[in-house]
Design brief:
- By secondary structure, the protein is an alpha+beta fold.
- The chain has a single domain, classed as Sandwich (Jelly Rolls), CATH 2.60.120.620.
- Helix content is 17%, strand content 15%.
- It contains six helices and twelve strands.
- Strands 2, 3, 4, 5, 8 and 10 form a six-stranded antiparallel sheet that branches. Strands 1-7-6-9 form a four-stranded mixed sheet, with no helix packed on it.
- The longest helix is centred in the N-terminal third of the chain and has 16 residues.
- The mean pLDDT is 88.
């Protein structure tokens, strides 16, 4: 498996970032975030989970999950998971200066993070959350989890030009089940079958350090390596898009003035911003059957003219 190419030298160059993304489908940034701040978030996450039985008391060793499903303990609705996700520290991650600056350089000045504080009871078992905490059990406890299958975020969100920022909250080397991407495969369109990561040619990953960020497009195939360690792999998924792209109506709860708006305590902070009211909402929930592909401002899409030359991509 190949090593990621570090895009850190390109972080302030919009054209260079878009050219690299157009080619590879991903951008990796070593040490983009303040490691101390991320460790603080990890400590608060462990504390919230630990209060609700996720760890063996007095340790960071994961407790055996209740067998409520094939992947063990389902996170959504779990009081420890919900407390960790709703914390100021987690909610503020997507609004932090470094990450917000990067995503607006890449996507455009109107880029915004998708909301992630929908109450568990609003939309059944999969509340509409653009950001999620991932707590992946060791393989010795949960042999196969959903993230080990090759997947594309477009199939969940139905928006072509949506981006994921994957942030490890703890050091995640290859043995702990870090995320891998299939380089350049975003240009092939939608995956046609569901398969486990095959470790074959074309895949790339790294030994992640605290402060690293992996950004990839909604059409980029990605999957997690198995967690061969004895610890929980803790990471965050954060999702961003432009107001030029449509937004699933399931996220209307983050738009101030919408009848669906859901207030939350962390909104008192200066860093918080609502979903822009200029974005067009479409009637869609998460995991609905994906709509037909549309042209992209950033990557090739089969059947449509290429987004290149990239200097024509809107730069607001």
């Amino acid at each position: 498996m190949h090593e990621f190419e570090d895009a850190s030298p390109l972080a302030s160059d919009r054209t260079a970032l878009r050219r690299r993304l157009h080619r590879d489908g991903y951008l990796f940034f070593r040490g983009l975030l303040d490691p101390g701040a991320v460790r603080g978030l990890a400590d608060r996450t462990v504390s919230a989970l630990g209060e609700h039985g996720w760890f063996v008391p007095g340790t960071r060793r994961p407790a055996l999950p209740p067998r409520e499903g094939p992947a063990g303990r389902p996170p959504h609705g779990d009081p420890g998971y919900e407390a960790a996700l709703a914390s100021d520290a987690f909610q503020g991650l997507g609004y932090g200066a470094e990450l917000r600056r990067l995503m607006r350089t890449l996507i455009g000045d109107d880029a915004f993070p998708l909301p992630s504080w929908a109450p568990h009871t609003r939309r059944g078992g999969h509340p509409a959350r653009g950001g999620q905490l991932r707590a992946v059990y060791p393989r010795s406890i949960v042999p196969v989890h959903e993230g080990m299958y090759e997947q594309q975020d477009y199939r969940v969100f139905g928006v072509v030009d949506m981006f994921t920022a994957w942030v490890p909250l703890v050091p995640v080397d290859r043995s702990m089940g870090g995320l891998a991407v299939r380089v350049g495969a975003h240009a092939n369109g939608l995956l046609t079958d569901r398969r486990l990561l095959d470790h074959g040619s074309g895949w790339a990953t790294t030994d992640y350090e605290v402060g690293d960020v992996l950004v990839f497009h909604a059409l980029t195939p990605h999957a997690a390596l198995p967690n061969e360690s004895d610890r929980l792999r803790l990471s965050a998924d954060l999702r961003f898009q432009s107001t030029r792209a449509p937004l699933a109506g399931a996220f209307a709860y983050g738009m101030r003035g919408s009848p669906e708006f859901v207030d939350a305590p962390f909104m008192r902070h200066a860093w918080w911003e609502p979903v822009p009211d200029t974005v067009r909402l479409v009637d869609r929930d998460l995991f609905d059957f994906e709509p037909p592909l549309t042209p992209s401002d950033f990557v090739p899409v089969p059947g449509y003219p290429d987004a290149a030359p990239l200097d024509r991509v809107p730069a607001l």
